[in-house]
Amino acid sequence: MCFSATASFSAGIVLAVIGVASIKKIQHRSQTMFALIPFIFAIQQFSEGLLWLSIPNEKWSCLQTSITYFYLIIAQIIWAVWVPVAILLLEKEQTRKQMQRILVAIGMFVSMYLTYCLFHFSIRSEIDCYHIAYIQTYPEDFRVMGGLLYIIATILPPFFSHIRRMWWLGVMVLISYIVTTVFYESYLVSVWCFFASVISLSVYLILSEIKISHREEIYLKRAVGRN
User: Fold this and answer.
1) Which residues lie closer than 8 Å to 126 by C-beta, 6 or more apart?
2) Is the pLDDT reported for residue 144 higher than 90?
3) Residue 169 in this model has a pLDDT that exceeds 80
4) First-residue to last-residue Cα distance in the chain
5) Most buried of 80, 106, 113, 140 (most Cβ within 10 A)?
6) 23-27, long-range: CB within 8 Å, 24+ apart, which pairs?
7) pLDDT at position 147, please?
8) How many CA atoms lie within 13 A of 53 on its CB side?
9) How deeply is 97 buried, as exposed, middle or buried, from its count of CB atoms within 10 A (0-12, 13-18, 19+)?
10) Domain boundaries, the chain
11) Please, are residues 87 and 161 in contact by the beta-carbon 8 Å criterion?
12) Contact 63/47 with Cβ under 8 angstroms?
């Protein structure tokens, strides 16, 4: 994230609180992965806070490398699969499920490729202009296509969901990606993850919406039963 270790740790705390609130909204185990999204973002922000502290300290160079890998594993490998799977598990309509499964497959492909790159090419992190830059020497041939497939896997799933307010999540993540690409291209991994983590509040609101819809369904069924 941009700014400082304090900002990253503060974001992590806020996200953890949102995570607790989201988990309390769970009504079925199929909602668990979706509800855990703020928690994973919290872990990600805490790890980057540690990175802010370790980069200037040469004695912590080993810790810096480990945290860099940890952060990128979440940002590039876990999210590419977690987001589409979490939304697929919430889906009830068969036609939409088919599309969600395709997006999960795309996410798995991107995740596997980025896993290969992460452990076969050199990476490092450095502080640059109040941001953390992740320097990755991945093959250029796949960089554009890989980035596009990653976006498809992480941004499109909300737009194919039957849940009424799920599209909020897709729109806000898309806007955050566009803003980051335009203004913070050199720090895309870090800044976009921060913006996306802020959007975790949407997860709580969507789970609240699901809970309300569930109550309405129960009420209608009971009303029909009485008639």
Assistant:
1) 55, 132, 133, 135
2) no
3) yes
4) 57
5) 80
6) 25/204, 25/207, 25/208, 25/210, 25/211, 26/207, 27/210, 27/211, 27/214
7) 82
8) 12
9) middle
10) 5-226
11) yes
12) no
